[in-house]
Specification:
Shape: globular
Strand order of the largest sheet: 1-8-3-6
Number of domains: 1
Largest sheet: 4 strands, antiparallel
CATH topology: Jelly Rolls
CATH class: Mainly Beta
Order of helices and strands: EHEEEEEEE
Distance between the termini: 17 Å
Radius of gyration: 13 Å
CATH architecture: Sandwich
Helix content: under 10%
Oligomer: single chain
Number of helices: 1
Strand content: over 45%
């Protein structure tokens, strides 16, 4: 669903530090989902922090889905709500001093 390492515009696609990023939930095409079961992987951060992932039309939550240290690759599973406005968006936010790579794999979804 989201692997900015594969982008030709990597500078624009990396999960910016203190920045909100939006992506549409996809799994072999469009899906009509209210939530998704995902695997989150964080890599390549030169500082520690955490990443939060949530429904794209909601406010940023005060909790993280995955914590990481500098130069650490970590993975975690999560159930993430999808925007209920028909856009199918999820948002991600990195609470870190430096950008990090974020990979989100959709394992399944809820209708």
């Amino acid at each position: 669903m989201w692997d900015e390492r594969l982008s030709t515009q990597q500078a624009e696609e990396i999960l910016r530090a203190q920045g909100r990023n939006l992506r549409r939930v996809r799994q072999r095409g469009e899906i009509d989902a209210v939530a998704a079961a995902v695997n989150l992987t964080v890599a390549g951060g030169s500082s520690g922090g955490y990443v939060s992932v949530w429904a794209g039309n909601q406010q940023t939550p005060f909790v993280g889905n995955i914590d990481f240290s500098a130069n650490q690759t970590r993975a975690n599973n999560a159930i993430v709500a999808v925007a209920n406005d028909g856009s199918g968006l999820v948002a991600a936010y990195a609470n870190a001093y430096d950008p990090v790579h974020l990979i989100i794999d959709v394992d399944g979804y809820f209708k």
